[in-house]
Fold:
Amino acid sequence: MKAYVTIMPKNGVLDPQGKAIGHALAGLGFAGVGEVRAGKVIELELAETDPAKAQAAAEAMAKKLLANTVIESFKVEVR
Amino acid sequence: MKAYVTIMPKNGVLDPQGKAIGHALAGLGFAGVGEVRAGKVIELELAETDPAKAQAAAEAMAKKLLANTVIESFKVEVR
Amino acid sequence: MKAGILLFPGTNRERDMALALQRVTGVKPPMIWHGESTLPAGLDLVVLPGGFSYGDYLRCGAMAAQSPIMRAVAEFAAKGGHVLGVCNGFQILIEAGLLPGALLKNASLRFLSMDCHMKVERTDTPFTNRFKPGAVFRSTMAHGDGNYFADAAMAARLEAEGQVVLRYVTPEGAATEAANRNGSVNNIAGICSANRRVLGLMPHPENQVDPLIDGTDGLPLFESISASFATAG
Amino acid sequence: MTDLPIPLAPERAKQLGAEFGLKGDEYDRVLAILGRTPSLTELGIFSVMWSEHCSYKSSRFWLKQLPTKAPWVIQGPGENAGVIDIGEGLAAVFKMESHNHPSFIEPYQGAATGVGGILRDVFTMGARPIANLNALRFGAPDAPRMKQIIDGVVRGIGGYGNCVGVPTVGGEVNFHPRYNGNPLVNAMTVGIARADSIFYAAASGVGNPVVYVGSKTGRDGIHGATMASAEFDANSEEKRPTVQVGDPFSEKLLIEACMELMATDAIVAIQDMGAAGLTSSSVEMAGKGDMGIELVLDNVPQRETGMSAYEMMLSESQERMLMILKPGREAVAEAIFHKWELDFAVIGHLTDTGRIVIRHKGQVEANIELAPLESQAPLYQRPWVPTPKLPVLEAASVADPVGLKAALLKLVACPDLCSRRWIWDQYDSMVGGQTAKRPGAADAAVVRVEDHKRALAMTTDCTPRYCLADPEEGGKQAVAEAWRNITAVGGLPLAITDNMNFGNPEKPEIMGQFAGAVMGIGAACTALDFPVVSGNVSLYNETEGRGILPTPAIGGVGVLEDVAQAVGLAMPEAGHALVLVGETRGWLGQSIWLREIAGREDGAPPPVDLLAERRNGDFVRGRILAGTVAACHDCADGGLLVTVAEMAMASGVGAKLEGQDDKGFWFGEDQGRYVLAVRDAPALLAAAAAAGVPARQIGVSGGGDLALPNGEAISVAELSAAHEATLPNLMRDGA
Ligand SMILES: Nc1ncnc2c1ncn2[C@@H]1O[C@H](COP(=O)(O)OP(=O)(O)O)[C@@H](O)[C@H]1O
Ligand SMILES: [Mg+2]
Structure:
């Protein structure tokens, strides 16, 4: 099955990339865009077939490697 | 409302980052991890309150700037 | 000859480029701000120098490609104007659709700052006519996203149409995997447009124009440019 | 003075003061200065201004002893960076600063923001940054998390420097288990300004506007007091990380905008917001100018909602500056900052009250007299004990287990001596188009001044194992080595910046290390005419309750009148004589050979004879400037044979060596020595004899091998392979 790990800068942590994108969108004339935040998504193909176990495995991977939990938060979805 | 633009490398496009992550996960002893793909997610705070319009606006932004459709595909979710 | 250098927020090799052009033309070219919507009249050449436009955030060159000035550059190129993009400038040209393909993260996922050698695949372009056919020259690269990508069909077309101008090679001229540090398709370091008037490359020949700094291996590229426009006045 | 803030409850204030790090008597002094209980914001201001970091309370007494003057010093310690005259109306502006703790917590961002901070210290003085260097100390490579830390720090330094477009041209790296839990990241920036247009921090002009520029303020890095502050913010949803994230893109814009504004006459004073952000910048600017200052925090550009005065005053958000403008110049400045897409806000004005007054939401949040805040800042003369001297290790008392060749092969591959290419390959060292000697090419980096012939030579140096064994000799050695490295490229050494990294100063042994290092640095600076013009102190660097190795990192800057005179260290083609300048006693105590080959870390470190140092160096520089030297390399870590091997590996050209078959001669780390490659050895030897400088020929360049005096030979290719493999192998899976 597939696990999707979405990693975002933690609340309150500066997101220079999101800031620059927001700026560029405004420059391109897109109105009504408020805060923009830029994150990552990692799609994992897992051999595991049990959703709960897959979820746990992906969470372990996120904690260990995929996310930098000092400045990023993550969430895992299994499909 | 919020729009989430998820951007992934197209099939057939080299994904050095995904490949390196897969490698590193295996090195860390995570078993049963098949293909790994690394993409981006951009979270947009939109003033628009109509979901269909918000969806259309975010799609326009993705086409114009957020994704490079030569190498990336994207999808938009509005919540 | 009259050249102009584009300046985007985050551009950082504009002074290097100006010095290299000055060396062959005797004058420092003007800087053109990204927010302008027209190019100065009478330009022979527009140069997009290296740097980190918009911090390289999102995708290298993506935001700069949307600048007002890039519409003018597209028109300029469409009318047969000459355009040179180096490093981030190359990335911007690609994002703006003025050159084909894409530049992905280096295969090692690391920034690569080091010497490289390039083979000049054709000398009948306005940028390479002062190189000897088949010449190999040393330059430096400094980029995180220089891994040139084109799918198989497009790569074949570029090769067939002679749009591959520069290729990473060993100092002896072999296009080996080891010489291809960033992982580019077919060791591609630089490509030109179908009319050969738009050139993009990742390395920095503008840093090899002064015998007291890092040698003059890159000088023929600038001499070519100056020679190409010598008759144009 | 009418407006007073709402004080905290006395008990609460005292308790919070302690949490913020104010000692009991320090807190009493706060009460005495205010004549009342402080408000939260006031308590925050006192605690950061009186922190070790801002007040130098443990180190000030000692730092005052350093020599800081010379005819070419334009600005010594006390401003954002030091300034020296380098001729032709130009000035070099430079400083080094530590980001040790943040780099341990979050290596990438910690190192990146370290680079950002030191860049601001330099361009705030009106100088365009032209070079970055970095002095790094890591733990044992196999220590927990260490690869990740190395990887993150190197990426962070590159990520920031590459993006702002300032070449990273040099630095140094050591590995030692004593840095396992406390790596050191010291970043140095060198900039160039016109000597007659340096900008300073001292505010002047009652009524002049106080202007905030750069990025918005968030709750980044609010000092250890974040937890406590959370109690005052009922809405705070999650514990805020205190990590600051760098935005090199904004920094680049800030550099360009400041340079553009500095070309006008709008600025009265300018100061970056570094440690303790708005607090230290406003307090220092007003304090230095004997002015008062009034700020209205409602006008501060804010990234987050609901920020309190306390949070805004203590935020360490990056990429921000504070300026005092001439009256009426706000519009000019605003236009420039808006062109560069940066925030610009008038947030207050100067007063004649000698006080700092902070207003927020119609309320006074702080009202403090500035003079006592500075003059009554704590100053400690902490007890110290001198470091006991170690006995001199007689070379003859140590057996040579392996011989020259095997030892050399092992040494060139050991972490402290292996190639740093893996690191500098990630740093753009060429941007700017003026780098004449990049990493690996020479003992000091050489960067030409744009549109001039003249060039700067720059280096960072320190040998912590010497400093541990004998802080005073170690301090001397660090300065001497910086001086020597500049000399070895042909540069005239002019001044240094220092970054004093030590353990807990409350321990008398650690304070003894600090005192010893300062004395050694001072002696060397005086003897070599190499004054200290800026610096930084980082204390409380501890690994599992044990201090790091004492690490007074020295950043040296020198000048070459013509970049064409610079020489590198690469072995020239066949037929050059190799001449050793300086005296060799075969000093093995604290040498790398002793540690790596004999497995011992002991003995007294090599002493530095400052008179010989100067005599030898002046002689070598003279020969280089006379154009008679093809290559020059100083003898440092690893000794003479490693020096020659490094020259050979840099070009691939070997050498045939002569002399005794003796470990002490070839691996001893005697100081004040250089290897010169010259065409005319007799002329060099004669000149040396005339100058009273010891010199002897030790070989001839040529071939693809190093032919050793004991008959062994080793190919340069084999040496290079070993030398180059270590870091890539170590970091292979560190990505
Ligand atoms: N070890 C030192 N030797 C000499 N001067 C020092 C030393 N440490 C700090 N200084 C000087 O003290 C002043 C304040 O330093 P610091 O607080 O680190 O500056 P900043 O406010 O820019 O961070 C600077 O002028 C600095 O050069
Ligand atoms: Mg400062």
